[in-house]
Structures are given as C-alpha cells and as structure tokens.
Automatic annotation (TrEMBL):
Species the sequence originates in: Chouioia cunea
MF terms in GO: odorant binding; olfactory receptor activity
Major site of localization recorded for this protein: membrane
Name this polypeptide is given: Odorant receptor 27
Gene Ontology biological process terms, A to Z: signal transduction
Key words, A-Z: Cell membrane, Membrane, Olfaction, Receptor, Sensory transduction, Transducer, Transmembrane, Transmembrane helix
A GO cellular-component term linked to this record: plasma membrane
Length: 381
C-alpha cells in the first residue's frame, strides 16, 4: 500500500513539474532545456501582457457601464496576478533550486526508507486532491468561457470569452473574430497553467516540509539513551535547522503572492457575485462560468490557508516532542545549548512579508471581505 502511495506521489510531483515546464517556470541546468524554458516563459508573459492591455481597453471603452467595468476589473486582476507569479518565479529562481536540492531531495531520500513512509506520506491524499480539484476547476473556467462564443455563433450571435476590446475593428463571425477567439483561449490556457502550477508548487513544498516535520517528531519521540544517542540528537537538531531555513525560503518565494491572493480573491469573488446578481439575462454557460470562477477562487484561498495552517500545527507538535526528548541527560553542553536555542523558537508559521500569517482564519477574512465589498458595490450602484 505504501509503495502504491509512493508511486502516486511521483505522479503528483510529475504533474506539477509538467505544468511548470509548459509555462517555462521550471528551472533546469541543461543549456538546451534552458533555451526552451526561456522561449516558453517569454511567450507566456507576452500573451498575458497583451491580454491585460485588451481588458484595460475594454474597461475604458465601457467606463460608463458599471457592470462592464466590474467584470473587466475582475479579469484584469486575475491576469495581473498571473503576471506577478511569472515575475516572482523568474526573480526567485535560485530559491526554487534551493528547495529542490534541499527540502525535496531530503524528502525523496527519506522516502526510500520504508519505515519512514507513514510519516512522510500522512497528508498525501489531501494535498493530491487539492491539486486535482484546483486543476479541474480552473480548466472548467476556460472550458465554459470557450463554449459561450461557439454556442452564440451557432445562433448567429457574437460573444467573447473574456471582456476584451482589441484596438482594431472586426466583424462578428469573421476571420478576425475567430483569431481573437484563439488568442483568448491561448491566453486563458497560459493563465490556468501558470496559476495551477505555481499554487500547486507551494502545496508540493508544503507537503515535503510537513512530511519532514512529522518524521522529525517521530525521531524525537523515539530517542533512547545509548552510545548513538548524542549523534541521533544532533542529527535531529541539524535537520530542524534545515527545515526552518527551507520554510524561510518558501516565505520569500510565496509570501508576497499570498498577500496578493488575499486581496485579489476578495475583489474577484465580490465582482463575480455582483455580475451574477445584477445581470438577469445571462446565458447558461456564462452563469456556469461565473459560479465556477467563484468556487475556484474560494478553493485557491482555502488551499493557501490550509497549507500554512498545516505547517504551523505540525511544527507545534514537533516542538513538544523536542521538549519531551531526553536531551538534558546527554552530558554535552554544546548540544544542550543547541536544543535550548531550537526550543526557544516559535512554531514555524508561514508569514507573508510580516503582514499576515497564512492560517485558516485568513480564509474566513477573505470571505468576509468579499461580502463587505459586494454590499458596498450594491450601495454605490
């Protein structure tokens, strides 16, 4: 059973790496692969920038219509968020390599030891289901968006996937119309790939970190006095320091985006609810698009909050195990000093630039803020 779960973990990781590779976000040492990665990254960034410009143009052209502005702002924020993720992965590429060479490699090395697998893979199913749900919900957004223009064309009408306004004239149903449709689909596909891969990478590293913390807790609880006691205790302390460093690197890589997520999710959810409630004659596919969009953003916010909360909870349990370990009788002053230093640390908490802690209460704050923004918009309307 454990071997089967291990193979599923490989599938889980390979799926995330494949999505990152498609967007040019997965750093590789090979020179040939590097050129391909740069090309993919450049294409993704160009499509997202041009698309964001087209959405801005739509908002300006329809600035007299509040519903149109709200709808375009929601999409614009989503694509700006995607562009920010692309830039973060470019700027902090070395942090990704550090986590791969340290946290991920330690995890996979320990995974080879059969007796460690129950601790390392304890949360596997939850993380894997988050990844799958995240992937399917965001792809459903694109699918519902694509379906609307096709169905509209069947009935002799014209519709767009997203609220965009190109800087040139085109005839509905003409060649340019369908070229714009292809552009929308490609831009949306890159947006989905980047969003799901970046968010799931956070989940993958959180899974690695939580697994290693659980294993460390087990090792502290099972320390027994003997000739190898000092060496075992020292290994545990050194491993705890490595995990703390990995958590700090994760904060640098995902912290700013967590703050941006909290803000953008609240605004986007509010905007989509406003669009749903103010437009009485929305097509079925548009309604499905908006509802799926809301669910996907709620899931995204909950994922981040749950990942951060899981790290904190397991870290608290680990610190209790350190306190209860028989380190006081080791007789080695330096080692006892190291233990006291580790013990004096607060539990690992995923903090975002010192602004907020990523825990489950963050999700509740996002939902409450969305509702507050919605009622504010209704008042302004």
């Amino acid at each position: 059973m454990e071997a089967e779960v291990e193979s599923y973990y490989r599938e889980y990781k390979d799926g995330i790496v494949s999505l990152l590779t498609l967007s040019g976000l997965w750093p590789e040492d090979s020179r040939q692969i590097k050129y391909v990665r740069v090309a993919l990254f450049s294409v993704t960034l160009i499509f997202e920038l041009v698309f964001a410009g087209a959405v801005c143009n739509f908002a300006m052209v329809n600035s007299h219509k509040m519903s149109a502005v709200v709808a375009s702002v929601a999409v614009l924020i989503s694509f700006i968020f995607v562009i920010a993720k692309l830039l973060v992965m470019l700027i902090y590429k070395e942090d990704v390599l550090y986590l791969n060479r340290n946290l991920a490699s330690y995890f996979e090395s320990d995974l080879e030891i059969t007796e460690y697998r129950p601790y390392l893979l304890a949360y596997y199913r939850v993380f894997y289901r988050f990844f799958k749900a995240h992937y399917y919900y965001f792809n459903a957004i694109l699918l519902f968006g694509m379906t609307a223009p096709i169905v509209a064309a069947f009935y002799g009408k014209s519709a767009r996937v997203y609220p965009i306004h190109p800087p040139f004239h085109y005839e509905p149903g003409g060649t340019r119309h369908w070229m714009i449709f292809v552009f929308e689909v490609i831009s949306g596909a890159y947006s989905v790939t980047t969003t799901v891969s970046y968010d799931s990478l956070f989940g993958l590293y959180a899974f690695n970190l939580v697994g290693e913390i659980r294993l460390l807790t087990h090792r502290f609880r099972n320390l027994t006095p003997g000739k190898s006691y000092r060496n075992q205790l020292k290994e545990c302390v050194d491993k705890h320091v490595i995990l703390m460093n990995a958590k700090n690197v994760m904060q640098r890589l995902f912290g700013a985006m967590s703050v941006m997520l909290a803000i953008t999710c609240a605004v986007i959810i509010c905007a989509q609810i406003f669009t749903l409630t103010t437009n009485k004659q929305l097509p079925v596919f548009k309604v499905a698009f908006l509802i799926d969009y809301i669910i996907a953003k709620l899931l995204q916010a909950y994922m981040y909050a749950w990942f951060g909360n899981c790290i904190t909870v397991e870290s608290e349990i680990c610190l209790d195990a350190i306190y209860n370990a028989e380190w006081a009788g080791s007789g080695e002053l330096r080692l006892m000093k190291d233990i006291l230093i580790v013990q004096s640390q607060n539990p690992m908490q995923f903090e975002t630039m010192g602004i907020m802690k990523v825990r489950l209460d963050m999700f509740l704050k996002i939902v409450n803020t969305s509702i507050s923004y919605f009622f504010l918009l209704k008042t302004v309307e």
